[in-house]
C-alpha cells in the first residue's frame, strides 16, 4: 500500500493507494514544517498516520521542505517500520502531477507561484518564484499587490475603486496596515483575486491580469524553452482562458490544468 501526502500551508491531503487505486483519503490542517515541533502540529500528524495500515511506501510532499523534521520521521517509522520513505518539495509534486513521466514545464499558480523544467524524473532547472515581495509573478498575490499599488496611487478607475471600497478596507491607512502588519500578507493579497476575477471583462482589470501573466511568461516560462506547460493551483485554473490566450502569443502550449496536485500524484504513483 502506498501513502501519498501533499502538505500545504492551508491543508494536508492524505491518500492511501492499493493496486486498484485509492483506498482511503483524509484531509487535515496544513503543516508549517519550519515550526512542526509544535505539540499541536505533531499531534495532528500522529493522529492522521494512525488512520492508515499496511503501508509499504510513503511519499510526502511539502512546501519549503529543506530537511524533513526528525520528530515526524520518527512517527512515520514507528508506525510503518517496513515502509520506504520519500520526502520531496511541493515543486516536485507539481511537476509529477502536471507532467507525469514526461518532460515539460510545471507552474504552480496559487496564492504564490513557482516554476520548473522537469525531465520526467527530476527537476533540472528552477527559476525561483522569489516570494510575493520580489516575485511570485502570475500568482493571486501578485495580482492583488499590483491592484493595491494602483489603488493607493489613485490609478484605479473611480467606479472600480468604489466597488472595492464597498467590500474591503480601501483607505490608505487600512491598506498599508493589512499589507505590512498582517501575519499572512501573501494570503491577504491573494484574497483580493476573486474580486478582480469577477470583473475580468473590465478593461482595467483585463489589462492588470494580462500584465501579471506576461510577467510570468517573460521572467520565467519562456526561459525554459519550447516545452509543454502544466499548471497546478486554483488561481491558475480559474485563469485558464487568459493563460491560453496570452500564451499563444509567446509560443506556449498548456497541456494540463489541475486545482491541486493530489489527483495527478495518484496517477503518477499508480503507474
Question: Can you describe this structure?
Answer:
- There is one protein chain.
- With 271 residues, the chain is an alpha/beta fold.
- It folds into 2 domains: 2-82, ATPase, nucleotide binding domain (Nucleotidyltransferase, domain 5), CATH 3.30.420; 102-259, Nucleotidyltransferase, domain 5, CATH 3.30.420.40.
- Helices cover 43% and strands 22% of the residues.
- It has helices spanning 39-49, 70-79, 90-99, 131-134, 140-152, 158-165, 172-180, 185-190, 193-197, 203-219, 234-238, 240-249, 262-270; strands spanning 2-7, 11-18, 21-29, 57-62, 84-89, 104-109, 113-118, 123-125, 229-232, 254-258.
- The strands form 2 sheets. The protein has a 5-stranded mixed sheet, sandwiched between helices.
- Helix 1 runs parallel beside helix 2 (70-79).
- The relative contact order is 0.14.
- The mean pLDDT is 90.
Topology at a glance:
Blueprint: E1 2-7, E2 11-18, E3 21-29, H1 39-49, E4 57-62, H2 70-79, E5 84-89, H3 90-99, E6 104-109, E7 113-118, E8 123-125, H4 131-134, H5 140-152, H6 158-165, H7 172-180, H8 185-190, H9 193-197, H10 203-219, E9 229-232, H11 234-238, H12 240-249, E10 254-258, H13 262-270
Parallel strand pairs: 1-4, 4-5, 6-9, 9-10
Antiparallel strand pairs: 1-2, 2-3, 6-7, 7-8
Could you say what the CATH topology of the largest domain is called? Nucleotidyltransferase, domain 5
Rg from alpha-carbon coordinates: 20 Å
- The largest beta-sheet arranges its strands as 3-2-1-4-5
Judging by the overall fold, what is the CATH architecture of the largest domain? 2-Layer Sandwich
Give the total of beta strands.
Answer: 10
- Helical content, roughly? 40-55%
**What is the SS-derived class?**
alpha/beta
- So what's the overall shape? globular
Distance between the termini: 14 Å
Amino acid at each position: 500500500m502506498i501513502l501519498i501526502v501533499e502538505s500545504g500551508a492551508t491543508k494536508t491531503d492524505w491518500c492511501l493507494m492499493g493496486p486498484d487505486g485509492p483506498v482511503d483519503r483524509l484531509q487535515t490542517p496544513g503543516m508549517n514544517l519550519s515550526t512542526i515541533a509544535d505539540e499541536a502540529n505533531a499531534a495532528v500528524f500522529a493522529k492522521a498516520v494512525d488512520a492508515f495500515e499496511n503501508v509499504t511506501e510513503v511519499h510526502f510532499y511539502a512546501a519549503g521542505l529543506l530537511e524533513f523534521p526528525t520528530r515526524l520521521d520518527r512517527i512515520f517509522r514507528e508506525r510503518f517500520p517496513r515502509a520506504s520513505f520519500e520526502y520531496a518539495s511541493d515543486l516536485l509534486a507539481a511537476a509529477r502531477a502536471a507532467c507525469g513521466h514526461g518532460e515539460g514545464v510545471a507552474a504552480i499558480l496559487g496564492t504564490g507561484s513557482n516554476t520548473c523544467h522537469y525531465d520526467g524524473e527530476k527537476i533540472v532547472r528552477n527559476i525561483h518564484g522569489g516570494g510575493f515581495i520580489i516575485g511570485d509573478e502570475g500568482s493571486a498575490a501578485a495580482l492583488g499587490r499590483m491592484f493595491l499599488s494602483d489603488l493607493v496611487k489613485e490609478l484605479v478607475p473611480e467606479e472600480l475603486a468604489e466597488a472595492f471600497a464597498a467590500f474591503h478596507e480601501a483607505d490608505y491607512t487600512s491598506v498599508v496596515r493589512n499589507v505590512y502588519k498582517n501575519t499572512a500578507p501573501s494570503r491577504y493579497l491573494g484574497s483580493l483575486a476573486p474580486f478582480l476575477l469577477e470583473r475580468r471583462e473590465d478593461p482595467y482589470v483585463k489589462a492588470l491580469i494580462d500584465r501579471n501573466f506576461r510577467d510570468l511568461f517573460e521572467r520565467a516560462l519562456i526561459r525554459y524553452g519550447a516545452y509543454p506547460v502544466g499548471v497546478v493551483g486554483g488561481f491558475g485554473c480559474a485563469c485558464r482562458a487568459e493563460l491560453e490566450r496570452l500564451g499563444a502569443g509567446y509560443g506556449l502550449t498548456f497541456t494540463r490544468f489541475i486545482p491541486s496536485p493530489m489527483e495527478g500524484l495518484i496517477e503518477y504513483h499508480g503507474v
